[in-house]
Amino acid sequence: MPSIQLEINTGKLSGEGVITAQKKLSQLENVFEDEATRASMDQEQLIYEVQAFMPVEEGKEGGLYFGNSTIFPGKVNEEYFMTRGHFHAKLDTAEYYWCIQGKGALILMDENGKTWLEEMTPGSVHYIPGKIAHRVANTGEEKLVFNACWPSEAGHDYGTIEKEGFGARLKDIEGTPTLVATKNEMV
Amino acid sequence: MPSIQLEINTGKLSGEGVITAQKKLSQLENVFEDEATRASMDQEQLIYEVQAFMPVEEGKEGGLYFGNSTIFPGKVNEEYFMTRGHFHAKLDTAEYYWCIQGKGALILMDENGKTWLEEMTPGSVHYIPGKIAHRVANTGEEKLVFNACWPSEAGHDYGTIEKEGFGARLKDIEGTPTLVATKNEMV
Question: What range(s) does the Glucose-6-phosphate isomerase prokaryote domain occupy (chains A, B) (predicted)?
Fold first, then answer.
């Protein structure tokens, strides 16, 4: 019997061991630049949803996890709905994201704060090398869906991003997704 | 720019850095049980084709590769067309296969020779744990296509399978794919 099932056209996972986590706007305090606007919006709004299949314990070397993420369309003021973003706890571990539907941006940052993006469209495959923080924003009108594969030893370091942020924020500037450098940081 | 492109419905990869390798029947000497029949067939027959995207050097810890394999339909006597099969050179490293089209079997073997299978159908996702040899057979009438993700430190150990084989062979027994134990080995 296969481990799990994947709906090829939607990216959705099902089967024993698939876990699901959701992030509502209420759980994303201080993630967006305009915190006052975030706090004034509907706190029940679902921003993103992650499915993960983790057949071995986190931290084990040589194992792999498989995931599916959905980011809903919307903005907090000019800034697109996006994930919190993270480095891997074991810093030098890679990850793949591949886009199934929708339109988005993979925002990447190295350890010096240099920040850039890769456009996500259906079929785009993104190799995220080790030591690179990653965050995904939905820049379209429909949901953005992608699958992922990453090492079980990678772990997540959300703290560095919570404290220091990315070197730039992705904003809708007159209809165009634009990376805008944050003060004291470079793009 | 994304690393590469994936055709979601066909599994095909394209873009800079995607390499392709083919195995013809002439290159699979002694892989099938009935070597005399294999040697008498069209040696130019394509048995399988592999695409791989390997953005970091093989052996590097923490990196990941992405692949696409196609196994063509057919048999050598009763035995389905299949891959050579391998353990990973760094034995305790995992891999994912996920089936995009066709019908097949993922044949798995532990270090004691115990051999079993998982059916592959579109959308089936297979976690291959570390220390498990793996081979894929096409049991259908059309091509079998799957994608794969594996660690850059995994490498390939084909020699153990060349020498010892799997504990069983997958044969068409009166129209049903059936694992048949090889002598002195267990299923």
Answer: 22-175
